[in-house]
Amino acid sequence: SPPYAIVSHQCLHDEEVNFNEYLHLQPATKKKLGYRKIVEACKKAVCDHLEYIWIDTCCINQSNHEEVARVVKSTYSYYHNSEVCYAYLADVKGSPIWRSKWFQRAWTLQELVAPRRLNFFKADWEFIGDRQQLTNDIHYLTGISPSVLNGSTPIHSVDIRTRLSWCAGRKTTKAPDLAYCLLGILGVSIDPDYTEDVQSAFKRLQKALIRSYPD
């Protein structure tokens, strides 16, 4: 695929622009905060000399279950293969970054460690810093070691139990996502099933882990 940027963010409740809304833009849609996020992210990509960008809210057709399943299983590689990831902290205006809910969300875990470059932005799209500059803050907030954050320790060489511990206490909108967000981080694959609870999702994840890492 051609070089692309990618966006990580907390969902702006009732303000996001979905796949169909973006395809058939209405004046009311353009007033949403989610539309402004798309426009501002595209401007950043242009500044980084990139012609393409991937934003989950408007790039995934949520009514297509096969597409959703494919994306859930591939999200880690989407972030890993990007040129740069923009972490948009919509709840950081003047306050310190550690107050942001972004750091407690389940899906942002892989978005934190998978991309080669990760740049953080405030609500008004002012640049805060990149992952290298914020390593100590991020380590303090997440418990992920600085060597993983700065890329000197490859994620798949980290002990499985340590990788599992990174998701402790994280928040999800859909319960089984707490297991699904670990697929790329653990290097295993299971089909998402949003009718299951978090316990059965973790049981299936555990079986996949045992198959991949018998020891």
From TrEMBL:
Residues 35-91 form the Heterokaryon incompatibility domain. This is Heterokaryon incompatibility domain-containing protein. It comes from the Eukaryota. It holds the Pfam family HET. InterPro entries: HET (IPR010730).
